[in-house]
Amino acid sequence: MSRLNGKRSEAESQGLKVNVAILGAGGIAHAMSKTLVGMAKDPKYSALVAPYAVAARDLDRATEFAKQYDFPVAYGSYEELLADPQVDLVYIATPHSFHAEQSIACLKAGKNVLVEKSFTANAEQARQLLDVAQSSGLLCTEAIWTRYMPSRTMLDDIVASGEIGEVHSVSANLCYPITRKERLTDPALAGGALLDVGVYPLNFIDMVLQGRRPDRIVTSMQPYETGVDAQNSTTLYYGDGVMAVSTSSMLNTSDRDGVVWGTEGYIKCQNINNIESIDIYGNDHQIKRHVDIPQQITGYEYEVASAANAILDGKQECSEMPHSDTLRIMELMDSLRAEWGLQYPFEA
C-alpha cells in the first residue's frame, strides 16, 4: 500500500505531498512533466503533488530527462521505480500494448496508477487490470484528460439547461497526420487511429449522452499498409432515436470539432482533444452565446489532481472516469475492431 492512501489528515498535518513518478520517457511523458512542474509552482496544487521521478529502460536517458525537469530521482529500469517506497502515484506513459502489464506490476508493488489512454489494448486486458486494482485497494484510473477538464461540466450544464432543446444528434472528430510515429503504425504495439485519437470522439459522445449504450453500430475503416486502421468512421444509433457520428484519422488534419445538435439550436466545441471554446447557436445559425474555458497549465493538471485527491481519500477510482466508464469504452472499441476484422498480433 502506498504511504498516503486514505491518509489526507496525516498528509496535510505533516506537509506530505503525493509523489508522482513517470514510467516511460516518450513524448507524452514530457507533456506530463511540464504539467507536474507547473503544478508544483501553482498555489492551487503545490501542496498536493510533487514531481518526483522518471523511469526509462536506459539510465542515461532517464537522467537526462530528470535533469530537464528537475526531478530528484531517475531510474534506469522500471523495476527500480517499483522498489521505491516514496513513489505514491505512477503515470503510465508507454505504448498501449504495455499498459496492462506495467500497471499490474505497479499495483502489485503497492503503487497507485494513472494510466494514459487508451487504458489497455483491449477489454480483456482492462478487466484483468481492474481485477488486480480492486483486490489491491489502490487507485487505478484512466488518464483521458478530457474527462477531468472543467469544459466537461460546462458542456453538461448547457445541455441539461435545455438551451438547445432536445438533443437528437452528436458528432465529433479528431484527426492528425501522425503516421511518422512508429508506434502508431505497428500492430504489435496496438497501433492505429482508433486507440490513439479515435478514443477522444467516442468519449466526447459518451459524455454528452451520459454513458448510454448504442443499440446499433455501423462502422468502417481504411487500413494502413501495416494493417492497423489509418482512418475510421462510426455511426452509433440509440433506442430513443438519437444518433452520433465519430471520425478519426492518423493521415490528415481535421477541424477537431464536437457538435451537439438540438431542436432549438446546437453547441459547437472547438477541439474535443482539449476544448478551447464553446459556442451556442440558435436555429437561425447565429451565435447566441460564447463560453470561455478557464486558463490552465497544460490541461493534464485536472487528472493528476483528481488522482492525488482520490489517493488521499482512500478511493480506488476517480469519479470523473470510473472503472465502468473505462470498461464501456474499451468494449466499444473492441466491437469496432471486430467489425473491421482488426486483431493485434498478441490477441491471436
TrEMBL record:
GO molecular function annotations of the record: D-xylose 1-dehydrogenase (NADP+) activity; nucleotide binding; trans-1,2-dihydrobenzene-1,2-diol dehydrogenase activity
UniProt EC number: 1.1.1.179, 1.3.1.20
Enzyme class: oxidoreductase
All copies of domain GFO/IDH/MocA-like oxidoreductase, residue ranges: 156-267
Key words, A-Z: Oxidoreductase
InterPro entries: Gfo/Idh/MocA-like_OxRdtase_N, Gfo/Idh/MocA_domain, GFO_IDH_MocA-like_dom, NAD(P)-bd_dom_sf
Source organism superkingdom: Bacteria
Residue ranges annotated for the Gfo/Idh/MocA-like oxidoreductase N-terminal domain, each copy included: 18-141
PANTHER family (UniProt xref): OXIDOREDUCTASES, TRANS-1,2-DIHYDROBENZENE-1,2-DIOL DEHYDROGENASE
Family in the record: Belongs to the Gfo/Idh/MocA family.
Protein name in the entry: NAD-dependent oxidoreductase
Organism of this sequence: Bifidobacterium tsurumiense
